[in-house]
Amino acid sequence: YIYIWTQDLSISISIEFAAIILVIANLFVALQYGPYFLALANGHTKTNMILGIITIIFLVILLLKLTPIYGINGAAIPFFIVNLIIFFVLGFIIINKFLKSEFKIWFLYDSLLPCIINLVMITCIVSISKKFPQGYFTLIYGFIAFTISLICCSLVFLKRFPEHKNNKIIKNIITWFYFR
User: Fold this and answer.
1) Domain parsing of the chain, residue ranges
2) Cβ neighbours of residue 4 closer than 8 Å, sequence gap 6 or more
3) Model pTM?
């Protein structure tokens, strides 16, 4: 994907590791939104503020230490480490505070399972797509991976919450795609 933007193979190869680390780090940022919004919905901002300040301090220190030594990878790795830690800390504190004894369920079924599904789908699509034309076609392969992952995660949601009001909508959408 980077090559599509830069049109320079040497640049895309040189920043490939950093890009992968940043994508994974942003996954952990996205996974923080559930506990973050749960805290906001309950009027609790103290934990988010404290973790935000700690994040800024550690991130700046790590960036100043590692970037001169490791270059762009030295900037990506601290971002990953900080967001991984914040994901677990924020999730543990907020989920246990507002959803007593639900941390394990939240972590396994609401965070880990969708990540595994997406990882498997994306790995399969990437492996298969390498046999086909590259370039701008990779955007199409990415869209296919996204669609399959969305459907699979929606099916998991349907199984986890069979009485949820949005289930009829999700079933209709999946049926529409499946039978077209």
Assistant:
1) 1-99, 101-180
2) 135, 136, 138, 139
3) 0.76
